[in-house]
Amino acid sequence: MLAAVRTNPADGPPKKAPVLDGREPPTASQRLRDDIEEVSEKHHEAQERCEQEVVKLSLDNLMTFPWIVEPVRVGTLRLHGMRFDIRSGVLEMLHGDGVFRAV
């Protein structure tokens, strides 16, 4: 879709594109913002699940170090998994049942 029509620079400034259905066509930057928002919404849930799995994986990885395992075993160290959703501002904590819940 074109936002401006210009056939010859000597004709002067570009003419506005025709108004469709009583609305002017969106600008290229508006179309881009709309596309980014649509893709972002579609992938937000998958990204959230990936981030949660990374937290779980990180906790599992910590338990491969002897200097972490022993204090956890005797109760002098407790590990907690948390995730901050920058889009919503919500901090989630991983609970013993494997589910993340808002703090």
Number of domains: 1
Strand content: 15-25%
Rg, rounded, reads 26 Å
Query: In which range does the helix fraction lie?
Result: 40-55%
Q: Provide the structure class.
A: alpha+beta
Strand order of the largest sheet: 3-4-5
Number of DSSP-assigned strands: 5
Alpha plus pi helix count: 2
Low-confidence parts: 1-5
Question: Largest sheet, if any?
Answer: 3 strands, antiparallel
Report the oligomer: single chain
Query: Whole-number average pLDDT?
Result: 83
Shape: rod-shaped
SSE pattern, N- to C-terminal: EEHHEEE
Termini distance?
Answer: 46 Å
Structural descriptors:
two-stranded antiparallel sheet; 103 residues; alpha+beta; 3-stranded antiparallel sheet
Task: Provide a descriptive summary of the structure in words.
The chain has helices at residues 28-62, 66-74, and strands spanning 4-5, 15-16, 82-85, 90-94, 100-102. By secondary structure, the chain is α+β, with helices and mostly antiparallel strands. The chain has one domain. The strands form 2 sheets. The protein has a 3-stranded antiparallel sheet, with helices on one face. The protein has a two-stranded antiparallel sheet with strand order 1-2. A hairpin with a 5-residue loop joins strand 4 and strand 5. Mean pLDDT is 83; it is low at 1-5.
Brief digest:
It is built from 2 helices and 5 strands; from the N terminus they run ββααβββ. With 103 residues, it is an alpha+beta fold.
